[in-house]
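Hey all, sorry for the wall of text incoming. These are the two entities for the joint prediction.
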Amino acid sequence: MQASTPQEHWYSLAAQRHTSRPLNITDGQQFSIALFVFIDAATFSKSNLNGSEFHVNFVDWIPGIFSVLGMLIINSIDKSRLSADNFSYSGDGVAWKARVVLFMGFAAMAGGLAGSVTVCLLKYVVREASWPALWFGVANIASNALIMLSSVVLWVSQNMEDDYTYNLAL
Amino acid sequence: MAGLKTIIVLSFILAIGFLLVILSAALYKNFLTLLVVATYVVAPIPNWLCGRASSQDDFMDSGSSSIVELGRFMTGFLVVMGVALPVVLAHCDLIRPEAMVMSIVGGLLIYGTIISFTMFFHQEEEF
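and here's what came out:
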């Protein structure tokens, strides 16, 4: 900061940040929203406001666990491995192996989303839960969908690394 | 003496933020909202640490490495957690809605102070 006032300096810094990394929802923030949607349901289940006989058990956590597992698997794959079959330095078929692992990750994530829909239907909709108890199932679906979306955001942002754009504009 | 005014203004904003959070806890005799302060104080730390870890061989490769992205992930997680925690607590009737609003505003003031402090004095250190 040579001759400019602190305000101008701050504005120029903010402008630099905006051009390089726009102020959008990052993957971590989206994952946080997803986790807290579900934690809200679990806390509401134990709170005084829940007058129904429906409660959040371990069964409700299983789809979320699978979604997080799939997200970890997908994001721990190096993206250059997927198309580096020719000059592979660790044996043949690296791209094929990477695709198999990637498929397992996507399968875990899709299974988590489908499992959340299953839990919502079988545990709450079929037994005709009214609204404050129905929120447990809806929050389960919403959090799993948000985890999937955050993984998509991370994937796209890592594949757009060349353009120096980190985030997907939402 | 541009830095002195900045420090004074930032410290005022920080004090107002702490005042709001402590009032939201003390007015309603429910000290769960103090978790917001802990969250926002911890929030920039992963970004700092991972940025420091990657800046050693910075001229070798362009683009961000995975540890920088891990730091951004955790920082973004904690920033949203600072807002989401009072909302969850208020929705589940553990704190009052007024306490929720006060703690969210106070927490955002605290975090804004930390971020602008970093932006002011990190640049000075580099050049």
